[in-house]
Amino acid sequence: MGALLEGTVVLATGGFFDVDTGEAVIRTRMRGRLKHRKRKTDLCVIGDRVRLSLVPDEEGGDFAGVLEEVLPRRTVFSRRHPGPGGRFKEDVLVANLDQLLIVFAFRDPPMHARLLDRFLVIAEHNRIEATLVGNKVDQLVPEQKALLARYADLGYPVHYVSAATGEGIDALSACFAGRISALTGPSGAGKSSLLNALDPSLGLRVGATSDRHGKGRHTTRVASLHRVAGGYVADTPGIRELGAWNLPEEELDRCFVEMRPFLGGCTFRDCRHLHEPGCAVKAAVDQGAVSSERYESYVRMLLDDER
Ligand SMILES: Nc1nc2c(ncn2[C@@H]2O[C@H](COP(=O)(O)OP(=O)(O)OP(=O)(O)O)[C@@H](O)[C@H]2O)c(=O)[nH]1
Ligand SMILES: [Mg+2]
Ligand SMILES: [Zn+2]
Question: The pTM is what?
Fold first, then answer.
């Protein structure tokens, strides 16, 4: 066996892993001994750095890639596995992610502040930079623009863009160079459309939002990494269920950035900021320093077993 090659997994589907070594994209299968390790997390996903070897194909002639080793992850964008039994398994959507672009549409489908807050909690918990993208600005809804503006006040970058008209696309493309980013958000928000607008040669499939009633109407089904504007960008399927994986209750408050300045000030060290006396967070809500909407998101996530 020759020297091992190293690369980034750009597609993981049906037991195959496509690995970009910088010189070529090589389709690999996983070495058997890797597969049999029992784990609570996904073994190999897009964004993973891996080592692979080239072995002669069974028919002779060509070489086939064998995935030998998955290197430790710097970060993960993950959630609890959706569905029954999910609390026991982590669903890693992208490994080694630097930046999460949370895409919502104006009007169709409507924005969803609670889901937005869940994305932000997952980004904060995993120390991934979060950027908000309001797509379909050609169908602007003023109240929804005001909603996004409140997140800009919290310090999150916000882009107003339209995949349809091209508005804001150049400014958006400036944030990808040299890093791994992912577009996430509800189905129909226009994630694939945005990637096509950033690079028309990608030719990703987009679907009409009217086709999406009920379950399983996602146009994008498999997450994949693309080279866009000097970096890697993942297109991911739309997300409806988003429980954070491995987020202890006492760490939830830190994931709401505007609560941080108040966290040392509660009377009780283990204050959950619900009904405890002398709670500095509740006082901040009363004074308007923390919005009641965001506080409500905090309470819901705290009490929600699906956290
Ligand atoms: N008016 C308008 N429509 C848009 C815009 N961007 C996307 N769309 C439309 O929105 C619909 C959904 O777009 P997709 O790109 O498939 O959405 P997605 O977020 O990738 O959806 P999933 O793959 O299911 O998660 C399509 O009909 C697009 O043509 C935009 O900026 N303006
Ligand atoms: Mg899509
Ligand atoms: Zn408190």
Answer: 0.90
